[in-house]
Amino acid sequence: MAKEEQSRSSREQRWSLQGMTALVTGGTKGIGYAIVEELAGFGATVYTCSRNQAELSERLKEWEDKGFKVKGSACDLSSRQQREELIKTVSAAFDGKLNILVNNAAMSLLKRASDHSGEDYRRIMETNLESPYHICQLAYPLLKASRLGNIVFISSVAGRIALPAISAYAASKAAINQLTKNLACEWAKDNIRTNTVAPFGVRTNILKPEDIDPSIVEMYMPLMARTPIARIAEPEEVSSLVAFLCLPAASYITGQFPGQSRRYPVVEYDNTYLTVNDNLVKELAYMKEVFPECDIARLVYRHLTPNGNISWVSCFQHLLHDYVTARNNNFGPNIIPTL
Ligand SMILES: NC(=O)c1ccc[n+]([C@@H]2O[C@H](COP(=O)([O-])OP(=O)(O)OC[C@H]3O[C@@H](n4cnc5c(N)ncnc54)[C@H](OP(=O)(O)O)[C@@H]3O)[C@@H](O)[C@H]2O)c1
Protein backbone atom coordinates (compact mmCIF):
# COMPACT_ATOMS: atom_id res chain seq x y z
CA MET A 1 0.00 0.00 0.00
CA ALA A 2 1.34 3.43 -0.88
CA LYS A 3 2.43 5.58 2.10
CA GLU A 4 -0.30 8.18 1.44
CA GLU A 5 -3.00 5.53 1.30
CA GLN A 6 -1.69 3.94 4.50
CA SER A 7 -1.83 7.21 6.39
CA ARG A 8 -5.38 7.90 5.10
CA SER A 9 -6.55 4.49 6.25
CA SER A 10 -4.92 4.95 9.65
CA ARG A 11 -6.60 8.38 9.97
CA GLU A 12 -9.97 6.87 9.08
CA GLN A 13 -9.52 4.26 11.80
CA ARG A 14 -8.51 6.84 14.39
CA TRP A 15 -11.66 8.89 13.66
CA SER A 16 -14.16 6.03 13.60
CA LEU A 17 -16.09 3.93 16.11
CA GLN A 18 -16.87 1.25 13.55
CA GLY A 19 -17.21 -2.15 15.23
CA MET A 20 -17.30 -0.70 18.75
CA THR A 21 -20.00 -1.21 21.37
CA ALA A 22 -21.38 1.47 23.71
CA LEU A 23 -23.74 1.80 26.67
CA VAL A 24 -25.26 5.27 27.13
CA THR A 25 -27.48 5.68 30.19
CA GLY A 26 -30.54 7.92 29.80
CA GLY A 27 -30.52 8.05 25.99
CA THR A 28 -34.16 8.88 25.35
CA LYS A 29 -33.94 12.63 25.95
CA GLY A 30 -31.67 15.65 26.02
CA ILE A 31 -27.90 15.16 26.03
CA GLY A 32 -28.13 11.35 26.20
CA TYR A 33 -30.26 11.26 23.05
CA ALA A 34 -27.68 13.37 21.20
CA ILE A 35 -24.85 11.12 22.48
CA VAL A 36 -26.60 7.96 21.23
CA GLU A 37 -26.95 9.52 17.75
CA GLU A 38 -23.39 10.83 17.70
CA LEU A 39 -21.81 7.50 18.68
CA ALA A 40 -24.08 5.52 16.33
CA GLY A 41 -23.24 8.02 13.58
CA PHE A 42 -19.54 7.21 14.04
CA GLY A 43 -20.36 3.51 13.57
CA ALA A 44 -20.80 2.19 17.13
CA THR A 45 -23.55 -0.22 18.15
CA VAL A 46 -25.24 1.46 21.09
CA TYR A 47 -27.28 0.16 24.03
CA THR A 48 -29.36 2.64 26.02
CA CYS A 49 -31.88 2.71 28.87
CA SER A 50 -34.41 4.94 30.60
CA ARG A 51 -37.35 4.44 32.95
CA ASN A 52 -40.11 5.06 30.41
CA GLN A 53 -40.59 1.95 28.24
CA ALA A 54 -43.08 3.59 25.83
CA GLU A 55 -40.76 6.50 25.09
CA LEU A 56 -37.78 4.15 24.76
CA SER A 57 -39.63 2.00 22.20
CA GLU A 58 -40.47 5.12 20.17
CA ARG A 59 -36.82 6.21 20.15
CA LEU A 60 -35.58 2.75 19.16
CA LYS A 61 -37.98 2.77 16.20
CA GLU A 62 -36.78 6.27 15.18
CA TRP A 63 -33.15 5.15 15.29
CA GLU A 64 -33.89 2.02 13.30
CA ASP A 65 -35.54 4.18 10.62
CA LYS A 66 -32.40 6.37 10.54
CA GLY A 67 -30.21 3.31 10.02
CA PHE A 68 -28.53 3.48 13.45
CA LYS A 69 -27.74 0.27 15.37
CA VAL A 70 -29.32 0.95 18.77
CA LYS A 71 -30.80 -1.47 21.31
CA GLY A 72 -32.31 -0.72 24.70
CA SER A 73 -34.36 -1.73 27.69
CA ALA A 74 -36.20 0.01 30.52
CA CYS A 75 -34.25 0.35 33.74
CA ASP A 76 -34.50 2.55 36.81
CA LEU A 77 -30.84 3.24 37.53
CA SER A 78 -31.59 4.19 41.11
CA SER A 79 -32.27 0.48 41.81
CA ARG A 80 -29.19 -1.64 42.51
CA GLN A 81 -30.92 -4.77 41.30
CA GLN A 82 -32.04 -3.17 38.02
CA ARG A 83 -28.49 -1.94 37.39
CA GLU A 84 -27.21 -5.51 37.78
CA GLU A 85 -29.85 -6.77 35.35
CA LEU A 86 -28.98 -4.02 32.87
CA ILE A 87 -25.32 -4.96 32.73
CA LYS A 88 -26.17 -8.65 32.39
CA THR A 89 -28.37 -7.80 29.38
CA VAL A 90 -25.69 -5.56 27.87
CA SER A 91 -23.10 -8.28 28.36
CA ALA A 92 -25.33 -10.80 26.57
CA ALA A 93 -26.04 -8.33 23.75
CA PHE A 94 -22.35 -7.50 23.20
CA ASP A 95 -20.74 -10.85 23.83
CA GLY A 96 -19.19 -9.82 27.14
CA LYS A 97 -17.29 -6.85 25.66
CA LEU A 98 -17.99 -3.15 25.96
CA ASN A 99 -15.84 -0.36 24.47
CA ILE A 100 -17.72 2.70 25.68
CA LEU A 101 -19.69 3.51 28.82
CA VAL A 102 -21.30 6.95 28.98
CA ASN A 103 -22.73 7.68 32.43
CA ASN A 104 -25.19 10.35 31.40
CA ALA A 105 -28.49 9.86 33.30
CA ALA A 106 -28.90 12.15 36.30
CA MET A 107 -31.41 14.35 38.06
CA SER A 108 -31.10 17.99 39.05
CA LEU A 109 -32.71 20.09 41.74
CA LEU A 110 -32.65 23.88 41.99
CA LYS A 111 -33.34 24.54 45.67
CA ARG A 112 -31.64 26.51 48.39
CA ALA A 113 -29.52 24.34 50.71
CA SER A 114 -31.82 25.12 53.66
CA ASP A 115 -34.79 23.72 51.68
CA HIS A 116 -33.28 20.36 50.65
CA SER A 117 -35.08 17.48 52.40
CA GLY A 118 -33.31 14.27 53.41
CA GLU A 119 -35.19 12.55 50.60
CA ASP A 120 -33.98 15.16 48.03
CA TYR A 121 -30.39 14.55 49.07
CA ARG A 122 -30.79 10.76 49.02
CA ARG A 123 -32.40 10.69 45.55
CA ILE A 124 -29.72 12.94 44.06
CA MET A 125 -26.81 10.98 45.47
CA GLU A 126 -28.38 7.66 44.51
CA THR A 127 -29.05 8.68 40.89
CA ASN A 128 -26.07 10.93 40.21
CA LEU A 129 -23.26 9.28 42.17
CA GLU A 130 -24.03 5.81 43.53
CA SER A 131 -25.56 4.62 40.26
CA PRO A 132 -22.72 5.67 37.88
CA TYR A 133 -20.14 4.37 40.38
CA HIS A 134 -21.87 0.99 40.58
CA ILE A 135 -22.39 0.85 36.78
CA CYS A 136 -18.63 1.42 36.35
CA GLN A 137 -17.89 -1.45 38.75
CA LEU A 138 -20.33 -3.76 36.96
CA ALA A 139 -19.09 -2.78 33.49
CA TYR A 140 -15.39 -3.03 34.41
CA PRO A 141 -14.91 -6.68 33.30
CA LEU A 142 -16.67 -5.93 29.99
CA LEU A 143 -14.60 -2.80 29.36
CA LYS A 144 -11.43 -4.68 30.20
CA ALA A 145 -12.38 -7.58 27.92
CA SER A 146 -12.80 -5.18 24.97
CA ARG A 147 -9.10 -4.18 25.34
CA LEU A 148 -10.09 -0.66 24.28
CA GLY A 149 -12.36 0.64 27.04
CA ASN A 150 -13.66 4.13 27.57
CA ILE A 151 -15.72 5.73 30.30
CA VAL A 152 -17.19 9.20 29.90
CA PHE A 153 -19.10 10.83 32.74
CA ILE A 154 -21.42 13.76 32.16
CA SER A 155 -20.72 16.08 35.06
CA SER A 156 -21.44 19.81 35.29
CA VAL A 157 -19.74 23.14 35.82
CA ALA A 158 -21.76 23.11 39.08
CA GLY A 159 -19.34 20.47 40.35
CA ARG A 160 -16.49 22.89 40.08
CA ILE A 161 -17.78 26.34 40.97
CA ALA A 162 -20.46 27.47 43.42
CA LEU A 163 -23.61 28.14 41.39
CA PRO A 164 -26.75 29.34 43.19
CA ALA A 165 -29.23 26.96 44.91
CA ILE A 166 -27.85 23.69 43.58
CA SER A 167 -25.71 22.38 46.44
CA ALA A 168 -26.60 18.64 46.55
CA TYR A 169 -26.45 18.27 42.76
CA ALA A 170 -23.14 20.18 42.78
CA ALA A 171 -21.71 17.88 45.46
CA SER A 172 -22.72 14.80 43.42
CA LYS A 173 -21.01 16.20 40.32
CA ALA A 174 -17.87 17.24 42.23
CA ALA A 175 -17.62 13.63 43.41
CA ILE A 176 -17.91 12.47 39.79
CA ASN A 177 -15.02 14.78 38.86
CA GLN A 178 -12.84 13.16 41.50
CA LEU A 179 -13.97 9.66 40.53
CA THR A 180 -12.84 10.41 36.98
CA LYS A 181 -9.27 10.89 38.19
CA ASN A 182 -9.25 7.84 40.46
CA LEU A 183 -10.65 5.46 37.85
CA ALA A 184 -8.33 6.90 35.19
CA CYS A 185 -5.35 6.01 37.39
CA GLU A 186 -6.65 2.62 38.58
CA TRP A 187 -7.83 1.31 35.23
CA ALA A 188 -5.32 2.71 32.72
CA LYS A 189 -3.40 -0.57 33.07
CA ASP A 190 -6.50 -2.34 31.69
CA ASN A 191 -6.62 -0.03 28.64
CA ILE A 192 -9.61 1.82 30.03
CA ARG A 193 -9.62 5.62 29.69
CA THR A 194 -11.87 7.75 31.91
CA ASN A 195 -12.87 11.33 31.19
CA THR A 196 -15.59 13.79 32.09
CA VAL A 197 -17.50 16.34 30.08
CA ALA A 198 -18.81 19.16 32.23
CA PRO A 199 -21.19 21.56 30.51
CA PHE A 200 -22.87 24.68 31.85
CA GLY A 201 -26.51 25.23 30.79
CA VAL A 202 -27.77 22.92 28.01
CA ARG A 203 -31.17 23.17 26.31
CA THR A 204 -32.97 20.11 27.78
CA ASN A 205 -35.93 19.46 30.10
CA ILE A 206 -33.91 18.22 33.06
CA LEU A 207 -35.79 20.66 35.30
CA LYS A 208 -39.54 20.22 35.35
CA PRO A 209 -41.42 23.55 34.97
CA GLU A 210 -43.21 22.96 38.30
CA ASP A 211 -39.84 22.66 40.09
CA ILE A 212 -38.50 25.96 38.82
CA ASP A 213 -38.42 28.92 41.21
CA PRO A 214 -38.21 32.06 39.00
CA SER A 215 -36.21 33.94 41.65
CA ILE A 216 -33.49 31.25 41.44
CA VAL A 217 -33.51 31.12 37.65
CA GLU A 218 -33.04 34.89 37.62
CA MET A 219 -29.76 34.45 39.51
CA TYR A 220 -28.46 32.31 36.64
CA MET A 221 -29.02 34.87 33.88
CA PRO A 222 -26.03 37.12 34.62
CA LEU A 223 -23.84 34.04 35.16
CA MET A 224 -24.79 32.68 31.77
CA ALA A 225 -24.00 36.04 30.19
CA ARG A 226 -20.55 35.88 31.78
CA THR A 227 -19.50 32.63 30.07
CA PRO A 228 -17.33 33.11 26.99
CA ILE A 229 -19.99 32.10 24.45
CA ALA A 230 -22.74 33.73 26.54
CA ARG A 231 -25.57 31.41 25.56
CA ILE A 232 -27.05 28.06 26.48
CA ALA A 233 -25.57 25.01 24.67
CA GLU A 234 -27.44 22.61 22.41
CA PRO A 235 -27.21 18.87 23.31
CA GLU A 236 -25.29 18.22 20.06
CA GLU A 237 -22.59 20.62 21.23
CA VAL A 238 -21.97 18.33 24.19
CA SER A 239 -22.30 15.01 22.36
CA SER A 240 -19.59 15.92 19.84
CA LEU A 241 -17.05 16.25 22.66
CA VAL A 242 -18.19 12.94 24.17
CA ALA A 243 -17.72 11.21 20.80
CA PHE A 244 -14.26 12.73 20.41
CA LEU A 245 -13.17 11.35 23.79
CA CYS A 246 -14.32 7.87 22.74
CA LEU A 247 -12.43 7.87 19.43
CA PRO A 248 -9.09 6.09 19.06
CA ALA A 249 -7.85 9.58 18.07
CA ALA A 250 -8.14 10.51 21.78
CA SER A 251 -6.08 7.51 22.94
CA TYR A 252 -3.72 9.58 25.13
CA ILE A 253 -6.47 11.51 26.92
CA THR A 254 -7.53 10.22 30.32
CA GLY A 255 -8.49 11.69 33.70
CA GLN A 256 -9.47 14.97 32.02
CA PHE A 257 -12.34 17.46 32.16
CA PRO A 258 -12.39 19.09 28.75
CA GLY A 259 -14.96 21.84 28.55
CA GLN A 260 -14.50 22.75 32.17
CA SER A 261 -11.22 24.28 33.25
CA ARG A 262 -10.57 27.81 32.04
CA ARG A 263 -13.71 27.87 29.97
CA TYR A 264 -15.59 29.91 32.53
CA PRO A 265 -12.86 32.27 33.65
CA VAL A 266 -15.14 35.05 34.70
CA VAL A 267 -17.21 32.96 37.09
CA GLU A 268 -14.36 30.94 38.55
CA TYR A 269 -14.15 32.71 41.88
CA ASP A 270 -11.71 30.17 43.24
CA ASN A 271 -9.24 31.03 40.52
CA THR A 272 -7.04 33.40 42.47
CA TYR A 273 -4.55 34.26 39.78
CA LEU A 274 -4.58 34.92 36.08
CA THR A 275 -1.34 34.07 34.38
CA VAL A 276 0.07 36.77 32.17
CA ASN A 277 0.41 35.34 28.69
CA ASP A 278 0.26 36.70 25.14
CA ASN A 279 -3.49 36.34 24.91
CA LEU A 280 -4.05 38.24 28.11
CA VAL A 281 -1.77 41.00 26.93
CA LYS A 282 -3.72 41.26 23.65
CA GLU A 283 -7.03 41.30 25.49
CA LEU A 284 -5.83 43.98 27.88
CA ALA A 285 -4.77 46.12 24.94
CA TYR A 286 -8.23 45.67 23.51
CA MET A 287 -9.86 46.53 26.83
CA LYS A 288 -7.98 49.78 26.77
CA GLU A 289 -9.71 50.63 23.49
CA VAL A 290 -13.14 49.69 24.80
CA PHE A 291 -12.69 51.53 28.10
CA PRO A 292 -10.37 54.40 27.19
CA GLU A 293 -11.27 56.24 30.38
CA CYS A 294 -9.85 53.46 32.55
CA ASP A 295 -6.16 53.19 33.24
CA ILE A 296 -6.02 49.44 32.75
CA ALA A 297 -2.27 49.20 32.73
CA ARG A 298 -2.10 50.86 36.13
CA LEU A 299 -4.94 48.71 37.47
CA VAL A 300 -3.28 45.52 36.31
CA TYR A 301 0.29 46.33 37.22
CA ARG A 302 -0.76 47.51 40.66
CA HIS A 303 -1.84 43.91 41.26
CA LEU A 304 1.06 42.15 39.64
CA THR A 305 2.68 39.72 42.04
CA PRO A 306 6.43 39.10 42.13
CA ASN A 307 6.03 35.83 40.21
CA GLY A 308 4.35 37.58 37.29
CA ASN A 309 0.71 36.76 38.05
CA ILE A 310 -2.11 39.21 38.45
CA SER A 311 -4.08 39.25 41.68
CA TRP A 312 -7.68 38.32 40.92
CA VAL A 313 -9.13 41.38 42.62
CA SER A 314 -12.77 42.22 42.45
CA CYS A 315 -12.31 45.55 40.66
CA PHE A 316 -10.51 43.77 37.86
CA GLN A 317 -13.12 41.06 37.79
CA HIS A 318 -15.96 43.55 37.46
CA LEU A 319 -14.15 45.42 34.78
CA LEU A 320 -13.58 42.20 32.89
CA HIS A 321 -17.26 41.37 33.17
CA ASP A 322 -18.30 44.73 31.69
CA TYR A 323 -15.75 44.26 28.99
CA VAL A 324 -17.02 40.77 28.13
CA THR A 325 -20.59 42.03 27.92
CA ALA A 326 -19.52 44.97 25.75
CA ARG A 327 -17.59 42.75 23.41
CA ASN A 328 -20.37 40.19 23.21
CA ASN A 329 -22.85 42.89 22.29
CA ASN A 330 -20.62 44.60 19.79
CA PHE A 331 -18.37 41.99 18.38
CA GLY A 332 -20.22 38.66 18.44
CA PRO A 333 -19.88 35.61 20.61
CA ASN A 334 -17.00 33.49 21.82
CA ILE A 335 -14.55 35.98 23.12
CA ILE A 336 -11.59 35.60 25.46
CA PRO A 337 -11.72 31.80 25.39
CA THR A 338 -8.11 31.49 26.37
CA LEU A 339 -7.80 33.60 29.52
N1 LIG B 1 -29.25 20.24 30.93
C1 LIG B 1 -28.25 20.92 31.51
O1 LIG B 1 -28.29 22.17 31.57
C2 LIG B 1 -27.06 20.18 32.05
C3 LIG B 1 -25.95 20.92 32.42
C4 LIG B 1 -24.82 20.28 32.92
C5 LIG B 1 -24.83 18.91 33.04
N2 LIG B 1 -25.94 18.20 32.69
C6 LIG B 1 -25.88 16.74 32.86
O2 LIG B 1 -26.16 16.11 31.62
C7 LIG B 1 -26.73 14.84 31.85
C8 LIG B 1 -28.00 14.69 31.02
O3 LIG B 1 -28.91 15.69 31.41
P1 LIG B 1 -30.11 16.18 30.47
O4 LIG B 1 -30.23 17.64 30.68
O5 LIG B 1 -29.98 15.64 29.11
O6 LIG B 1 -31.34 15.48 31.24
P2 LIG B 1 -32.78 15.02 30.69
O7 LIG B 1 -33.17 15.76 29.47
O8 LIG B 1 -33.67 15.04 31.88
O9 LIG B 1 -32.53 13.48 30.28
C9 LIG B 1 -32.18 12.55 31.26
C10 LIG B 1 -32.22 11.14 30.68
O10 LIG B 1 -31.89 10.23 31.73
C11 LIG B 1 -32.99 9.33 31.97
N3 LIG B 1 -33.03 9.08 33.40
C12 LIG B 1 -33.15 9.98 34.41
N4 LIG B 1 -33.17 9.34 35.60
C13 LIG B 1 -33.07 8.02 35.33
C14 LIG B 1 -33.06 6.86 36.13
N5 LIG B 1 -33.17 6.91 37.47
N6 LIG B 1 -32.93 5.66 35.52
C15 LIG B 1 -32.83 5.56 34.17
N7 LIG B 1 -32.84 6.63 33.36
C16 LIG B 1 -32.97 7.85 33.94
C17 LIG B 1 -34.22 10.07 31.42
O11 LIG B 1 -35.28 9.21 31.03
P3 LIG B 1 -36.50 8.85 32.04
O12 LIG B 1 -36.85 10.10 32.77
O13 LIG B 1 -37.58 8.36 31.14
O14 LIG B 1 -35.98 7.78 32.93
C18 LIG B 1 -33.60 10.74 30.18
O15 LIG B 1 -33.48 9.82 29.14
C19 LIG B 1 -26.95 14.73 33.35
O16 LIG B 1 -25.87 14.04 33.92
C20 LIG B 1 -26.94 16.17 33.81
O17 LIG B 1 -26.55 16.31 35.16
C21 LIG B 1 -27.06 18.80 32.20
Structural summary, described in words:
The protein is an alpha/beta fold and 339 residues long. The chain has helices spanning 3-14, 30-41, 53-66, 80-93, 118-146, 167-187, 214-225, 235-246, 278-290, 296-302, 314-331, and strands at 21-25, 45-50, 70-74, 100-103, 149-154, 192-197, 273-275, 309-311. Strands 3-2-1-4-5-6 form a six-stranded parallel sheet, sandwiched between helices. Helix 2 packs across helix 8. Mean pLDDT is 82; it is low at 260-277, 301-315 and 330-339. Belongs to the short-chain dehydrogenases/reductases (SDR) family. GO terms for molecular function: oxidoreductase activity, acting on the CH-OH group of donors, NAD or NADP as acceptor. InterPro entries: NAD(P)-bd_dom_sf, Sc_DH/Rdtase_CS, SDR_fam, TR.
Secondary-structure map:
Blueprint: H1 3-14, E1 21-25, H2 30-41, E2 45-50, H3 53-66, E3 70-74, H4 80-93, E4 100-103, H5 118-146, E5 149-154, H6 167-187, E6 192-197, H7 214-225, H8 235-246, E7 273-275, H9 278-290, H10 296-302, E8 309-311, H11 314-331
Parallel strand pairs: 1-2, 1-4, 2-3, 4-5, 5-6
Antiparallel strand pairs: 7-8
Helix pairs in contact: 2-8, 4-5, 5-6
The protein binds NADP nicotinamide-adenine-dinucleotide phosphate (NAP).
GO molecular function: oxidoreductase activity, acting on the CH-OH group of donors, NAD or NADP as acceptor
InterPro entries: NAD(P)-bd_dom_sf, Sc_DH/Rdtase_CS, SDR_fam, TR
Protein name: Tropinone reductase 1
